[in-house]
Structure formats: C-alpha cells, structure tokens
Amino acid sequence: MKKLFALLLALAVSPVSVALADAPAASQELLWASDGEANVPYVFHDPAHESRMTGFEYELVNEIAARMHRKAQFIQNDWDGLIPGLSRGLYGMVLDGIEMTPEHKAAVLFSRPYYVTSERIIVRHDQTGLDTMEALKGHTVGTIKDTTAERMLRRQGGSNVRSYEEETNAFSDLRNGRLDAILLDAPIALYYGSISPDMKLVGEPIGSMEYGIAFSPENRVLRDQVDAALGEIIKDGTLHRILARWNLWTPLMANYTGDNSQPDIAPTEWDHYRQAMANTTGSGWHVLVRRYVSFLPLIGQAALMTLAVSALAMVLAVALGLLLALARHYGSAPLRFVAGVYVEVVRGTPLLIQVLFIFYGLPAFGIRLSPFMAGVLSLGLNYAAYEAENYRAGLLSVPRGQMEAAIALNMTHWQALRLVIVPQAFRTVVPVMTNDFISLLKDSSLVSVITLTELSQTYVRLSSTYYDYFGTGIMVGLAYLLLGLPFVRLARMAERRLGRGFSGAGHH
C-alpha cells in the first residue's frame, strides 16, 4: 500500500487531535477510514455490485463495532490523506494494510496486530527462474512505494526498482512487459496476481510484517476499546473465520494467534470475487456493454458532484476576483498592496497545496470545513486571483471619458463604478471568464484528495478494478466534455455578441 507519512509529522500534533481524544466515546458511530478505490482485498467496491463496500478489513471493523455496541461508519479517503484526516478529527481510526514499522509507530498509535503476512513474487505466466530475492538481481522489479517490499529490494541492491502509488499500475506494467517481476504483500499478490491467467505467484513467502489499526496518538481511550474487542475476536476464532472466507488464513496467522484449528470454512468471499471478476472481465462485446452500462450511475453521480463544486467555486471566484480587481485599480495604497500580494501568492503556489492546506492545515487554527466546502473554497480562492487580473484588464480597457462623463452627471465615484465602469468591463471579460470556468471544471479533479468522489476519483476506482483504462477513460472523458460543452458554446456566443466597442484608452 502507498505510504505517505511525511505530511503526518507536521499535522499529528494539531490541536484537533487533542479534541478528538474523548470524542469517539461519546459517539454512537465508530468512524473509520480507508482508501477503497483500488484496495483489494482490504476495503474495496464489490465488482458485482459497485455500490457495495466489502473486504476483509471492512468485515473486521464491522465485527469490532458490534463488540463495542456501536455502528461502524466508513469514510473514503485517498491514502495520502488518511493519516492527516485522522489528526484532523474526521474519523477515529484507519485500516488500510498499514505496516507496523518503527517509523510508523513513532508517528501514530497502533492497535495490536490484526494480520501477519509476508511478501510474494509475481511474474508473467511464461516466465521462469525469478522465484527468489537473489534471482531478482539484474531485473526490473515493481513494488509499492514506502513499503517493506521496497526497502527489501533497495537493501539487497542489484535490481532496477520501480515504485508505484497504485498496485494496479504495477500489474499493468508487468502485463505489458515493462517489468520482469513484482514484489508485494501476499494478500495483494493473491487477489491481483493469481486470478489473472497471464500471471502467477512463484517461490516461497518472503519475510513477515504486521498490519495494525492506526489511531491519533492522543486517542488512547478508543485504541484500548478497539484492542479489547480485537482480542475477543482473535480469542473466539472470529478473525480466523473472517480470514478463511477470504482465503487469507495462513501459517503465519496461526503462529501469531495460537489458533491451530482447522474448521471447515469455505472461502466464499474469495470465490465470489473470482467469479465477479470472471463475469466482468470476460471477452465479447456483450460483456463490455454490460460493464459500461453498470458504470453510468456512478459516473452520473460523480459528474453532478464535479458540476456542483465547480459552479459554486466559480461564483466565489467571480465575486472575489472583482473585489480584488477594484482594490488593485481604485483602492488605497495599503489595499492595493494586500490585493497584489494575494494575487501573486495564490498564482505562484500549486492548487493542490492550497487544497491540502485549507482542508488539513486550517483545523490547527480552529477552522474545520467539510470536504465539499473545502473543495469549493480552495478552487474559488485560487481562481479568484486569475479572475482579478482578467477584470483589471477589463477595467483598463474602459475609456477614461466614461468615468468623467459619469461624474459630470452628478454620480458619485461608487455609482460610476457600479453603473458605468464595471458593466462595460464585465462585457469585455465574459468570454475569458467562461473559458476559465471550463478550466476550473477540469481542475476540480484535485479535490479528490480530500475525500470528494468526483469524476477523476471515479475513473481511478473503475479502471483499477477492471484493468480497463481505455474504455473507462473514454466514458469519463466524455462526461467532462458533456459538462463543458454548454460553456464552450456560451463562450462563443459571448465572443460574437459582446463587442469590444468601447474604444480608447487611458486610466480613469
């Protein structure tokens, strides 16, 4: 799994963490998070029913919540935002195959291990001889960044190591011949590698690692409650039964738990997943049609979210941009300075950083926004800087005589701006403003990092589930195109109908 704990080190000591310490005990819901977009078999969308969440970690949390007499509430978040969201107080705990390494233990509070596993090697079906770590030397090997597998490969040396954010990308490169082998956690290797006819698992399990449930360092009360429930689940064999249904019970787990029983438990979830993948990844046009039709509701919902965020952000950008332009053009010296600094800082820093700062950084100052509001605010504030420059150019394009004529008609300076200057400037920048909205529509994909499921997030989820980046990409691309086409037409109409007939120049 993808590991980005650097941001955690800056945010883990946020005052929000302290506020969270006693919050879960008072709540009837057990809020937990994972990245369920491309996360088989941990937490993922059932390929047979895309709206249904499943996975062995998903089942485990539901069982833990039941033992605590609470209801588990799942919250989707990208991997990069899971731990920052924990310190921000969005949820009480995180499960996502997080390895209990010394570095991770220094950053977060862990439960007792709930799963012990190893690394496995995956190769193409026609390959031989790459079944040990030593044999991987001299070959191109893929893995997930910041994992035990990556550290093992780099420590050994001799291999060309390629690290990935998503395991599905590594498997795609192996299938396409860009990699010679993959080294990954055994559950991922089993569910991605062994069900594909063109891949196979080779060699013996390598090493061992433990997965733990992550908590905010100040949230020991919840950690202890979950630990107690987890202990019961291990002791009475419930964990054994869950893992057996997912075909994930191993000798390592037997040694860890001391449970050497061999109950007759069919791997029902494992069989269900294999059958679902066989039904959705078969050949033939009818299979593709059925799959793509099933995508339509999900893409439609994501398109509505994308449009809502973009439209509200553009309203904010237009209003604030106009105020900034007026401040820079007509304001006092301090006001001009502040507006100028805002425009330059916002335009000079990446939008992604601004999104993360507003969502994860502002809670340190007591400002906590919902993901939707944070997305709207970050996009609106960013585009306001660009709109301000557009409007300032529009104001400069209005002839000086317009202001003089308005004053001569006994208008105040404010009335002249509101009734004469601004309307003319606005007509000038409408085409540009419409084009900016189309750009904002596409840039809204960045809000996926703060738990909003919009079009780009939906594309990642669907394409990684079915290894179908082409057809799914066309569908999502068409959705963006259909959202933007009306505004493209509007821009063209504005360019034709709104003339730039106010000739002349000069500062009014």
Could you walk me through the main structural features you see in this protein, from its secondary elements to its overall organization?
This is ABC transporter permease subunit. The chain has 508 residues and is an alpha/beta fold. It folds into three domains: 27-114 and 210-284, D-Maltodextrin-Binding Protein, domain 2; 117-208, Periplasmic binding protein-like II (D-Maltodextrin-Binding Protein, domain 2, 3-Layer(aba) Sandwich); 290-499, MetI-like (MetI-like fold, Orthogonal Bundle), CATH 1.10.3720.10. It contains 21 helices and twelve strands. A hairpin with a 2-residue loop joins strand 2 (44-46) and strand 3 (49-54). Helix 14 runs antiparallel to helix 20, helix 16 crosses helix 17 (371-397) and helix 18 (400-408) crosses helix 19 (413-443). The longest helix is centred in the middle third of the chain and has 46 residues, at 285-330. The protein starts with 5 loop residues before the first helix and ends in an 11-residue tail after the last helix. The model is unreliable at 1-26 and 500-508 (pLDDT under 50).
Going across the biggest sheet, name each strand in turn. Answer: 4-1-5-12-6
Q: Kindly state the number of beta strands.
A: 12
Name the poorly predicted regions: 1-26, 500-508
Q: What is the CATH superfamily label of the largest domain? A: MetI-like
Please indicate the percent range of residues in DSSP E strands (runs of 2 or more).
Answer: 5-15%
How much helix, percentage-wise, in residues?
55-70%
CATH architecture of the largest domain: Orthogonal Bundle
Shape: elongated
- Alpha-beta classification: alpha/beta
Number of domains: 3
Rg measurement, Å: 27 Å
Distance between the termini: 60 Å
Largest sheet: 5 strands, mixed
Helical stretch count? 21
What value does the average pLDDT take?
85
CATH class wording of the largest domain: Mainly Alpha
Membrane topology: Multi-pass membrane protein
Subcellular location: Cell inner membrane; Cell membrane
Pfam families: BPD_transp_1, SBP_bac_3
Organism: Gluconobacter aidae
